[in-house]
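Hey, resending since the last one bounced:
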Amino acid sequence: MLIGILSDTHDRIDAAAAGIDALRAAGAAHYLHCGDVGGEGVLDLLAGLPAAFVWGNTDWDRAGLQRYAETLGIQCFGNLGEIELGGKLIALTHGDDARAVRRVLDGQRHDYLLLGHSHVKSDTCTGTVRVINPGALHRVREKTVATLDTESDLVRFITIPG
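The structure tokens again:
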């Protein structure tokens, strides 16, 4: 299964749309947003797609965004989520809660930990957990999203123009 990963859109609709379009063109079957969605407009872009997200440290109207996401059929995991896709167990958090990150890494139960927050794309391993940050679509020189192929374990970063 090909998973599209994005983070830190901060309600930048044009960049978020370009990122989602790039993930769709790459063949993403599921979309995971690692927080700092920013507003309803970004959720509108995910409407109709199999998608889920977590809170970021700048997602202020959490109750309103959660209600809105529910009307669109988008799953909100809160601060930390877990999902099984393509036979792999994935933890999803924004990355600003060091204790949540540490719990996932210490537990060594997940195949992947997806996070954002730093606005820096990365792909590392801690023990058996592969930690992937897709980068950001706001306040960065190079805007990026990522795909994760759960069958081949291949991560590919996609640069978004603009």
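Residues 2-152 form a domain with the Purple Acid Phosphatase; chain A, domain 2 fold (CATH 3.60.21.10).

Sorry for the duplicate.
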